[in-house]
Write a structure and sequence with these properties.
The complex is a heterodimer.
Chain A (H helix, E strand, L loop, with lengths): L2 H13 L4 H10 L4 H10 L21 E6 L14 H7 L7 E3 L5 E3 L19 E5 L14 H12 L8 H4 L2 E8 L2 E6 L20 H4 L22 E7 L3 E6 L13 E6 L3 H10 L5 E2 L6 H8 L4 E16 L25 H9 L3 H9 L3 E3 L21 H10 L3 E2 L5 E3 L2 E2 L1 E7 L2 H16 L3 E7 L1 H4 L17 E6 L6 H5 L25 H12 L3 H17 L3 E14 L2 E2 L16 E2 L2
Parallel strand pairs in A: 1-9, 1-10, 16-17, 16-18
Antiparallel strand pairs in A: 2-3, 4-6, 5-6, 7-8, 8-9, 10-19, 11-18, 11-19, 12-19, 13-14, 14-15, 20-21
Chain B lengths: L1 H28 L6 H4 L6 H10 L6 H13 L13 H36 L4 H15 L2 H15 L16 H38 L2 H8 L4 H39 L4 H10 L3 H29 L7
Classes of the chains: A alpha+beta, B mainly alpha.
Chain lengths: 597, 319
């Protein structure tokens, strides 16, 4: 799919020959995100078509308690410090962004009066600024009005290095934030910014009140009382919070959307494990919602048989993949293994990489391990089956792998291991300790052995594997072995941050204390150039074409082997209606949740 | 007695210091860091993690960090949790009521079951009652709490639907309903923990009573025509309790430890689950504080045991 194909399809949508939803699905198929597809349509004159949220109650309140179960307990309630999705979700009860992303990739206004666009003149043609109009009459929980000053303050708060806010990635591209009037803010970017809908949108866009945080900017950020007792604009107000255990909230009677929210109180309970959380919703119905059910599908199906609730799966951009090491992990150069100055002893032979790709039985991994929670894929981004891109197919064939290796001169030696020039193919394959991953490793090992490749499996405790400790050689960024497998999450609706993990300037090495994001040390000039082009391209259609190319470049070189596109799985009790989106938090529309009676 | 107490408390200081130093160094050497979750998130620039490490003083040498911790601790400042940025003492205080309620009730239950059963079993060794009690005791301490906990959940929550299996510290009900809800949610964890403890206590009580019951002074008491129940309570049980007190006192800190598993299963917001989540998040200040509290508990309960000895048997004097 290139730029011209994209434009043709957009014309089809405009002419009504192709439905909006179908278009979005096709874009996902070639590795783009739904929000990107939505942006492309919007740019081409097809307005964001946010469906009116499906919401039936005719008055606010009266819904009784809403009980949410988080097996990873929320530990803090300041969205700028949120350590992982559990905290982001909890913040969503109290705080709101200017807009959020729905499942089809439309921007939905929340604290904004309208979505900026070229048509209404709030989006600059040069990509250097965007003007947000804020909703009038919105009040903080303590009665103070919500204004442009609050929005501007959030940018100042986040980018102050002493605040050490985790949201800084979304805000540091802003050069200035200017108050036009009390309800209009103009953001000016440092450079043309195609993904202008990053600051103040979705998970990192939640707005905290200036009047309560202004004294706690920078070094004193930890001391703000409101870190623990949030005062937001959201549908529920603070009652009680026990970090790592529970949150109690009650309905905000002054909420700015009519007839909302439906529930009178919200109880969030944390702790325990995913399986028993699934049980409490699906089997016993003790809770209304359970977050992130990383449970084997087989178990989920059994629990669903209890008839109290259902698992709900949403498309996301998370990808479970295998990386082959481009460098030699077994030779030390300048005090560093897997240095970019070295080359891997046999992955440099494209035949070996191709054979390895053929030996990964993705279909079985999906069928026997992930079930509904993951879809086998050959693309690094996303790939629903019925629109599988013809460019990247996956195949499982031990026969073909054997043939390729044989033709490339890798002959079996006396112990059945293939070798060339006296170098037998022996690999060390590492991943984090986690039941599905260990099963996955076992399946791969079996196929490898049949092709004459010897594998030693290694598994590292997740807390070590995923740590950023520069002194520990077992972390995944060190990559001190031949192959490794893990999941990269795509927390954002735009692939720009996501795809920078294959640029050559992101290579993890001793120099940057292994903080770089290019773990496999894969380098490609064309990729670097295309990436730079994509990150400054303002036409979303051209930009999308460039991202498709980036995906193909990295996948077709066979160093990066995508395996499973994970889905986000939640548990919902029967009768609960919750608008879910894979591009925003689960609770992004908590104001619109209700129970069917 | 006062003198003795003072001496014991002074002796405890260097041992606690030693414990704290070892704990601190072990934790500092352990792999993993509290910002691991931030590491795999593409949106978070590495500088933010660096900034956090510096801000929280994680890159300083171990000894500097230890002395900083020690000095702060002496000032009553327990530090703050890296994960929730809340003061550690606040976190611990929030967790204590649930732990005390569940673990305390379970201990009471264990003693209420173990003492009479152990004594009765020892009075007629190898009788049918003794055999049954022994069998149950064996089964009891052979089954780990995570197994019995799950079993109870499957029976009483899933199949029968009588009891909730998620423990809540913030029950909204008032009056009798509040008591009733609290009772209902505590039944399973208390039973699991209590019976597990009761099983091992029963064995101890039985053997302690067996040791005492054949001694001459018991026979003397009996031959003087004392009432049998009086003989058992005043002469036998009182003396037999000495080894049991040792066991119970020394078990107390491990009971908190044992409760870690139970708290996790039932989602009880107690100290044990705080420790587990802190370990999973590499939240060093919290791990340090909780384990240090455990160390203090060990010292404290040893002292309590020694004082109880003197009360149970005046021949053991305080010196």
């Amino acid at each position: 799919m290139n730029e011209r194909d994209l434009r043709n399809q957009i014309a089809d949508v405009k002419a009504g020959r192709l439905s909006r939803r179908e278009f979005v699905q096709r874009m996902i198929a070639v590795g783009l995100t739904a929000p990107m597809a939505g942006t492309m349509l919007a740019h081409s004159g097809v307005a964001f078509a946010a469906d009116a949220m499906d919401y039936k109650p005719t008055k606010a309140g009266g819904g009784g308690p809403l009980k949410l179960l988080f097996w990873q307990a929320p530990t803090l309630l300041n969205p700028h410090f949120a350590n992982g999705t559990k905290d982001q979700e909890a913040c969503r009860l109290f705080y709101e962004p200017l807009a959020g992303w729905d499942a089809d990739g439309n921007l939905v206004p929340i604290l904004a009066a309208e979505i900026p666009s070229k048509e209404n003149g709030s989006l600059a043609a040069d990509g250097l600024s965007v003007t947000w109009k804020l909703k009038q009459g919105v009040k903080w929980h303590d009665g103070k009005p919500f204004t442009a000053d609050d929005v501007i303050f959030n940018w100042e708060y986040s980018v102050n290095p002493d605040t050490a806010a985790v949201s800084v990635g979304s805000y540091r591209g802003i050069k200035s934030a200017e108050k036009i009037d009390d309800h209009t803010v103009k953001l000016t970017f440092k450079q043309p910014t195609p993904f202008w809908a990053d600051p103040f949108v979705a998970a990192y866009g939640l707005v905290i009140p200036k009047h309560l945080f202004a004294d706690y900017i920078g070094g004193k950020s930890r001391e703000a009382p409101a870190n623990l007792k949030p005062v937001g604009t959201g549908p529920y107000t603070y009652v009680d919070f026990k970090p790592g255990d529970s949150i109690a909230a009650k309905r905000n009677p002054d909420y700015h959307q009519a007839n909302r929210p439906y529930f009178d109180t919200v109880e969030v309970k944390g702790g325990g494990d995913a399986v028993s959380a699934a049980r409490a919703v699906l089997q016993t119905g003790e809770y209304d919602y359970a977050y992130n059910l990383q449970v084997e599908d087989e178990i989920l199906t059994k629990l669903e048989a209890g008839g109290q609730g259902k698992a709900q799966l949403t498309v996301t951009g998370h990808i479970e993949y295998i990386a082959l090491n481009v460098t030699d992990p077994w030779t030390e150069v300048d005090g560093e293994r897997a240095s970019v100055k070295t080359k891997h002893p046999f992955f440099t032979d494209p035949a070996v990489r191709k054979a390895i790709n053929l030996l990964i039985d993705r279909a079985s991994v999906q069928k026997f391990i992930y079930g509904r929670a993951g879809v086998a894929t050959a693309n690094f981004l996303n790939n629903p089956e019925r629109f599988r891109s013809p460019n990247n197919k996956f195949e499982f064939s031990i026969e073909k792998a054997n043939q390729i290796l044989e033709e490339a001169g890798w002959k079996k030696n006396s112990s059945g291991v293939r070798e060339k020039d006296g170098k037998p193919i022996k690999l060390v394959f590492q991943t984090s300790i986690n039941a599905p991953r260990q099963k996955n490793q076992a399946i791969i090992k079996q196929a490898f052995q049949k092709a004459g490749i010897e594998v030693e499996l290694k598994s590292v405790v997740a807390s070590v594997f995923f740590s950023s400790d520069p002194a520990n050689p077992d972390t995944y960024p060190h990559f001190y072995c031949d192959m490794e497998m893990y999941q990269t999450t795509m927390p954002q609706a735009d692939p720009q941050f996501f795809m920078n993990q294959f640029t050559s300037w992101e290579i993890a090495s001793k120099d940057n204390k292994w903080q770089g994001r290019n773990i496999s040390r894969w380098q490609n000039k064309e990729y670097d150039e295309t990436y730079k082009q994509a990150s400054s391209e303002l036409d979303p259609v051209k930009r999308a074409g460039l991202f498709v190319k980036l995906n193909d470049l990295v996948v077709q070189d066979n160093y990066i082997l995508p395996e499973i596109n994970r889905r986000n799985c939640i548990g919902l009790k029967n009768g609960m209606v919750a608008n879910k989106s894979g591009w925003d938090n689960d609770l992004w529309q908590i104001a619109n949740w209700y129970r069917e009676t | 007695m006062g003198n003795y107490l003072l001496r014991r408390l002074i002796v405890a200081v260097p041992s606690l210091l030693g414990i704290s130093l070892i704990l601190f160094v072990l934790l500092a050497l352990a792999p993993g860091d509290p910002f691991g979750e931030l590491a795999s998130n593409p949106n978070i620039p590495p500088e933010v993690r660096e900034m956090l490490r510096i801000k929280f003083g994680m890159d300083d040498p171990i000894m500097v960090r230890y002395f900083r911790w020690l000095v702060a601790m002496l000032h009553g400042d327990w530090g703050f949790s890296f994960a929730s940025r809340v003061n550690v003492d606040t976190l611990i205080l929030q967790r204590i009521p649930a732990t005390l309620y569940v673990v305390g009730t379970a201990q009471l239950l264990a003693l209420i079951v173990a003492i009479p059963v152990g004594v009765l079993a020892a009075r007629r060794p190898y009788s049918i009652f003794d055999q049954i009690a022994n069998t149950f005791a064996f089964i009891g301490f052979s089954l780990p709490t995570f197994f019995t906990g799950l079993l109870l959940i499957l029976i009483f929550s899933v199949n029968l639907g009588w009891l909730p299996f998620v423990y809540r510290a913030d029950i909204q009900a008032v009056g009798w309903m509040w008591w009733w809800e609290n009772f209902k949610q505590a039944v399973m964890p208390v039973t699991v923990l209590g019976l597990y403890q009761a099983a091992s206590y029963t064995r101890y009580v039985r053997s302690a009573v067996l040791d005492v019951i054949k001694l001459d002074y018991v026979t003397t008491a009996r031959s003087k025509g004392l009432d049998e129940s009086k003989v058992i309570v005043k002469h036998v049980v009182r003396n037999a309790l000495i080894p049991v007190v040792t066991l119970v006192a020394l078990q107390m800190p491990t009971v908190f430890g044992g409760a870690i598993v139970t708290e996790q299963i039932f989602r009880i917001p107690g100290i044990g689950s705080l420790l587990i989540s802190a370990i999973l998040a590499n939240d060093t200040p919290v791990i340090m504080a909780v384990t240090f509290v455990f160390a203090c508990l060990v010292v404290l309960f040893n002292l309590i045991a020694d004082i109880l000895y003197g009360w149970l048997d005046p021949r053991i004097s305080f010196r």
